[in-house]
Design brief:
It is built from eleven helices and two strands, in the order H-H-H-H-E-E-H-H-H-H-H-H-H. It is mainly alpha-helical.
Length: 288
Protein backbone atom coordinates (compact mmCIF):
# COMPACT_ATOMS: atom_id res chain seq x y z
CA UNK A 1 0.00 0.00 0.00
CA UNK A 2 2.84 2.39 0.80
CA UNK A 3 4.39 1.79 -2.62
CA UNK A 4 1.02 2.52 -4.25
CA UNK A 5 0.66 5.82 -2.38
CA UNK A 6 4.21 6.84 -3.24
CA UNK A 7 3.60 6.14 -6.92
CA UNK A 8 0.30 8.03 -6.70
CA UNK A 9 2.09 11.09 -5.31
CA UNK A 10 4.66 10.85 -8.12
CA UNK A 11 1.83 10.58 -10.64
CA UNK A 12 0.13 13.70 -9.31
CA UNK A 13 3.42 15.58 -9.60
CA UNK A 14 3.92 14.39 -13.17
CA UNK A 15 0.34 15.32 -14.03
CA UNK A 16 0.86 18.76 -12.49
CA UNK A 17 3.85 19.36 -14.76
CA UNK A 18 1.83 18.21 -17.77
CA UNK A 19 -0.92 20.62 -16.72
CA UNK A 20 1.43 23.60 -16.54
CA UNK A 21 2.72 22.88 -20.05
CA UNK A 22 -0.73 22.12 -21.49
CA UNK A 23 -2.37 25.26 -20.07
CA UNK A 24 -0.73 27.58 -22.56
CA UNK A 25 -1.63 25.34 -25.48
CA UNK A 26 -5.27 25.18 -24.37
CA UNK A 27 -5.46 28.96 -23.87
CA UNK A 28 -4.02 29.71 -27.31
CA UNK A 29 -6.28 27.22 -29.05
CA UNK A 30 -9.29 28.63 -27.21
CA UNK A 31 -8.62 32.13 -28.54
CA UNK A 32 -6.98 31.56 -31.94
CA UNK A 33 -8.09 28.01 -32.89
CA UNK A 34 -4.54 26.99 -33.81
CA UNK A 35 -2.34 24.21 -32.46
CA UNK A 36 0.58 26.01 -30.85
CA UNK A 37 3.19 23.23 -31.07
CA UNK A 38 5.99 25.77 -30.65
CA UNK A 39 4.78 26.16 -27.06
CA UNK A 40 7.05 23.21 -26.21
CA UNK A 41 10.01 25.22 -27.49
CA UNK A 42 9.03 28.10 -25.18
CA UNK A 43 9.05 25.58 -22.33
CA UNK A 44 12.62 24.61 -23.29
CA UNK A 45 13.70 28.25 -23.46
CA UNK A 46 12.21 28.74 -19.99
CA UNK A 47 14.33 25.92 -18.58
CA UNK A 48 17.55 27.27 -20.14
CA UNK A 49 16.79 30.87 -19.15
CA UNK A 50 16.09 29.82 -15.58
CA UNK A 51 19.28 27.77 -15.44
CA UNK A 52 21.52 30.59 -16.70
CA UNK A 53 19.83 33.25 -14.58
CA UNK A 54 20.20 31.10 -11.48
CA UNK A 55 23.85 30.47 -12.31
CA UNK A 56 24.47 34.18 -12.74
CA UNK A 57 22.57 35.44 -9.68
CA UNK A 58 22.15 32.46 -7.36
CA UNK A 59 18.54 33.54 -6.84
CA UNK A 60 15.60 31.31 -7.72
CA UNK A 61 13.25 34.30 -7.58
CA UNK A 62 15.29 36.07 -10.28
CA UNK A 63 15.44 32.82 -12.27
CA UNK A 64 11.66 32.38 -12.22
CA UNK A 65 10.75 36.01 -12.89
CA UNK A 66 13.43 36.52 -15.54
CA UNK A 67 12.56 33.28 -17.32
CA UNK A 68 8.85 34.15 -17.29
CA UNK A 69 9.61 37.57 -18.81
CA UNK A 70 11.86 36.08 -21.50
CA UNK A 71 9.33 33.39 -22.43
CA UNK A 72 6.50 35.93 -22.49
CA UNK A 73 8.52 38.00 -24.98
CA UNK A 74 9.26 34.91 -27.10
CA UNK A 75 5.58 33.98 -27.09
CA UNK A 76 4.57 37.45 -28.28
CA UNK A 77 7.21 37.35 -31.03
CA UNK A 78 5.90 33.98 -32.24
CA UNK A 79 2.34 35.31 -32.23
CA UNK A 80 3.18 38.55 -34.04
CA UNK A 81 5.59 37.26 -36.67
CA UNK A 82 4.38 33.70 -37.25
CA UNK A 83 0.72 33.17 -36.41
CA UNK A 84 -0.77 36.59 -37.13
CA UNK A 85 0.41 36.68 -40.80
CA UNK A 86 -0.77 33.07 -41.30
CA UNK A 87 -4.28 33.37 -39.88
CA UNK A 88 -5.70 33.99 -43.35
CA UNK A 89 -4.58 30.52 -44.44
CA UNK A 90 -6.08 27.10 -43.52
CA UNK A 91 -5.29 25.85 -39.97
CA UNK A 92 -2.67 23.36 -41.13
CA UNK A 93 -0.44 26.20 -42.38
CA UNK A 94 0.13 27.77 -38.91
CA UNK A 95 0.58 24.23 -37.57
CA UNK A 96 3.39 23.54 -40.05
CA UNK A 97 4.97 26.88 -39.19
CA UNK A 98 4.71 26.08 -35.50
CA UNK A 99 6.48 22.74 -35.98
CA UNK A 100 9.22 24.53 -37.91
CA UNK A 101 9.69 26.98 -35.02
CA UNK A 102 9.90 24.11 -32.53
CA UNK A 103 12.61 22.35 -34.54
CA UNK A 104 14.49 25.59 -35.16
CA UNK A 105 14.57 26.55 -31.49
CA UNK A 106 15.71 23.06 -30.50
CA UNK A 107 18.56 23.28 -33.01
CA UNK A 108 19.46 26.79 -31.84
CA UNK A 109 19.59 25.55 -28.24
CA UNK A 110 21.87 22.72 -29.32
CA UNK A 111 24.21 25.12 -31.08
CA UNK A 112 24.27 27.72 -28.30
CA UNK A 113 24.24 25.56 -25.17
CA UNK A 114 25.66 22.35 -26.59
CA UNK A 115 24.02 18.97 -27.24
CA UNK A 116 24.77 17.59 -23.78
CA UNK A 117 22.65 17.58 -20.65
CA UNK A 118 23.20 20.46 -18.22
CA UNK A 119 22.54 20.04 -14.51
CA UNK A 120 20.28 22.44 -12.61
CA UNK A 121 21.79 22.42 -9.09
CA UNK A 122 19.06 24.34 -7.28
CA UNK A 123 16.84 23.43 -4.35
CA UNK A 124 13.39 24.89 -4.04
CA UNK A 125 12.68 26.41 -0.59
CA UNK A 126 10.22 23.73 0.55
CA UNK A 127 10.64 21.22 3.37
CA UNK A 128 10.30 17.45 3.27
CA UNK A 129 6.93 16.46 4.72
CA UNK A 130 5.94 13.13 6.27
CA UNK A 131 2.29 12.06 6.16
CA UNK A 132 1.37 8.70 7.61
CA UNK A 133 4.90 7.42 7.27
CA UNK A 134 5.14 8.51 3.61
CA UNK A 135 7.71 11.12 2.68
CA UNK A 136 6.71 13.95 0.37
CA UNK A 137 10.01 15.36 -0.83
CA UNK A 138 10.64 19.07 -1.13
CA UNK A 139 10.63 18.72 -4.92
CA UNK A 140 7.21 17.07 -4.99
CA UNK A 141 5.80 19.57 -2.51
CA UNK A 142 7.13 22.46 -4.60
CA UNK A 143 5.44 21.09 -7.71
CA UNK A 144 2.13 20.68 -5.87
CA UNK A 145 2.18 24.15 -4.31
CA UNK A 146 3.38 26.06 -7.38
CA UNK A 147 0.97 24.27 -9.72
CA UNK A 148 -1.95 24.91 -7.35
CA UNK A 149 -0.98 28.59 -7.09
CA UNK A 150 -0.75 28.97 -10.88
CA UNK A 151 -4.11 27.26 -11.40
CA UNK A 152 -5.73 29.41 -8.72
CA UNK A 153 -4.40 32.64 -10.24
CA UNK A 154 -5.46 31.57 -13.72
CA UNK A 155 -8.92 30.60 -12.47
CA UNK A 156 -9.30 34.00 -10.83
CA UNK A 157 -8.17 35.86 -13.94
CA UNK A 158 -10.46 33.96 -16.31
CA UNK A 159 -13.57 33.93 -14.12
CA UNK A 160 -13.43 36.99 -11.87
CA UNK A 161 -11.89 39.78 -13.94
CA UNK A 162 -12.85 41.87 -16.97
CA UNK A 163 -9.77 40.50 -18.74
CA UNK A 164 -11.09 36.97 -18.27
CA UNK A 165 -14.49 38.01 -19.58
CA UNK A 166 -12.84 39.54 -22.64
CA UNK A 167 -10.78 36.37 -23.16
CA UNK A 168 -13.91 34.22 -23.05
CA UNK A 169 -15.71 36.55 -25.44
CA UNK A 170 -12.81 36.54 -27.91
CA UNK A 171 -12.61 32.74 -27.75
CA UNK A 172 -16.30 32.42 -28.62
CA UNK A 173 -16.31 34.89 -31.52
CA UNK A 174 -13.45 37.33 -32.05
CA UNK A 175 -15.34 39.33 -34.70
CA UNK A 176 -18.41 39.91 -32.54
CA UNK A 177 -16.16 40.65 -29.55
CA UNK A 178 -14.43 43.31 -31.65
CA UNK A 179 -17.73 44.98 -32.51
CA UNK A 180 -18.45 45.18 -28.78
CA UNK A 181 -15.29 47.18 -28.16
CA UNK A 182 -12.93 44.32 -27.21
CA UNK A 183 -9.46 44.55 -28.71
CA UNK A 184 -9.15 40.93 -29.83
CA UNK A 185 -5.53 41.30 -30.92
CA UNK A 186 -4.55 42.62 -27.50
CA UNK A 187 -6.40 39.71 -25.85
CA UNK A 188 -4.49 37.26 -28.06
CA UNK A 189 -1.20 38.89 -27.06
CA UNK A 190 -2.08 38.71 -23.36
CA UNK A 191 -3.04 35.06 -23.80
CA UNK A 192 0.38 34.31 -25.26
CA UNK A 193 2.05 36.18 -22.39
CA UNK A 194 0.17 34.16 -19.77
CA UNK A 195 0.64 30.83 -21.52
CA UNK A 196 4.34 31.39 -22.22
CA UNK A 197 5.05 32.53 -18.65
CA UNK A 198 3.36 29.36 -17.39
CA UNK A 199 5.54 27.28 -19.69
CA UNK A 200 8.62 28.96 -18.19
CA UNK A 201 7.54 27.89 -14.71
CA UNK A 202 7.06 24.32 -15.93
CA UNK A 203 10.48 24.30 -17.61
CA UNK A 204 12.27 25.41 -14.45
CA UNK A 205 10.38 22.95 -12.25
CA UNK A 206 11.25 20.06 -14.56
CA UNK A 207 14.87 21.18 -14.79
CA UNK A 208 15.22 21.31 -11.01
CA UNK A 209 13.20 18.15 -10.29
CA UNK A 210 15.14 15.98 -12.74
CA UNK A 211 18.34 18.06 -12.42
CA UNK A 212 18.78 18.24 -16.17
CA UNK A 213 18.17 20.64 -19.04
CA UNK A 214 18.81 19.69 -22.67
CA UNK A 215 17.85 20.95 -26.16
CA UNK A 216 15.20 18.33 -26.98
CA UNK A 217 13.43 18.33 -23.61
CA UNK A 218 10.35 19.81 -25.29
CA UNK A 219 9.97 17.08 -27.90
CA UNK A 220 7.91 14.64 -25.83
CA UNK A 221 5.74 17.38 -24.24
CA UNK A 222 5.07 18.74 -27.74
CA UNK A 223 3.05 15.72 -28.85
CA UNK A 224 1.73 14.76 -25.42
CA UNK A 225 0.16 18.17 -24.90
CA UNK A 226 -1.56 17.89 -28.28
CA UNK A 227 -3.13 14.62 -27.15
CA UNK A 228 -4.05 16.11 -23.77
CA UNK A 229 -5.93 19.13 -25.14
CA UNK A 230 -7.85 16.78 -27.46
CA UNK A 231 -8.73 14.49 -24.56
CA UNK A 232 -9.70 17.43 -22.34
CA UNK A 233 -11.66 19.13 -25.09
CA UNK A 234 -10.06 21.56 -27.51
CA UNK A 235 -9.89 24.99 -25.89
CA UNK A 236 -11.11 23.79 -22.48
CA UNK A 237 -8.63 24.74 -19.75
CA UNK A 238 -10.35 22.67 -17.00
CA UNK A 239 -10.49 19.72 -19.37
CA UNK A 240 -6.77 20.06 -20.15
CA UNK A 241 -5.94 20.12 -16.42
CA UNK A 242 -8.08 17.04 -15.68
CA UNK A 243 -6.60 15.14 -18.64
CA UNK A 244 -3.05 16.08 -17.58
CA UNK A 245 -3.52 14.90 -13.99
CA UNK A 246 -5.18 11.70 -15.16
CA UNK A 247 -2.36 10.95 -17.59
CA UNK A 248 0.33 11.59 -15.00
CA UNK A 249 -1.29 9.20 -12.54
CA UNK A 250 -2.02 6.60 -15.22
CA UNK A 251 1.59 6.60 -16.46
CA UNK A 252 2.98 6.20 -12.96
CA UNK A 253 0.50 3.63 -11.67
CA UNK A 254 0.06 1.51 -14.78
CA UNK A 255 3.69 1.51 -15.89
CA UNK A 256 5.60 2.08 -12.65
CA UNK A 257 3.35 0.21 -10.22
CA UNK A 258 1.33 -2.36 -12.20
CA UNK A 259 4.20 -3.01 -14.65
CA UNK A 260 1.90 -3.06 -17.69
CA UNK A 261 4.11 -3.77 -20.73
CA UNK A 262 3.30 -0.63 -22.68
CA UNK A 263 5.51 2.26 -23.76
CA UNK A 264 5.04 5.05 -21.21
CA UNK A 265 4.58 7.75 -23.86
CA UNK A 266 1.92 5.73 -25.70
CA UNK A 267 -0.66 6.11 -22.95
CA UNK A 268 -1.54 9.68 -23.96
CA UNK A 269 -2.53 8.57 -27.44
CA UNK A 270 -4.32 5.45 -26.22
CA UNK A 271 -6.35 7.72 -23.95
CA UNK A 272 -7.00 10.12 -26.84
CA UNK A 273 -8.31 7.31 -29.06
CA UNK A 274 -10.51 5.96 -26.27
CA UNK A 275 -12.00 9.34 -25.36
CA UNK A 276 -12.66 10.29 -28.98
CA UNK A 277 -14.45 6.98 -29.59
CA UNK A 278 -16.65 7.65 -26.55
CA UNK A 279 -17.01 11.44 -26.78
CA UNK A 280 -15.73 13.09 -29.95
CA UNK A 281 -15.54 16.60 -28.43
CA UNK A 282 -13.38 15.47 -25.51
CA UNK A 283 -14.09 15.40 -21.78
CA UNK A 284 -15.20 19.03 -21.34
CA UNK A 285 -15.22 20.24 -24.92
CA UNK A 286 -18.08 21.93 -26.70
CA UNK A 287 -19.98 20.02 -29.35
CA UNK A 288 -20.14 23.06 -31.61
Amino acid sequence: MQLFLEQLLNGIAMGSIYALVTLGLALVYGVMRILHVAHAAVYTIGAYAGLYLFGATGSLAVAFLGSMAICAAVGVIIERFLYFPLLKYPPFVPLIGSIAVLLSIEEAARLVAGPYILTFPAKLPFPDVYVGGIQISSGLLAIYVITAAVLLVLWYITTRTELGLAMRAASQDAVIAGTMGINSHAIITITFVIGSATAAIAGILVGIYYNQVYPTMGTVPAYKTLALIVVGGLGSVPGAVIASLALGMAETLLIGYANIPLPRDALAFIAMIGVLMWRSEGLLGSSR
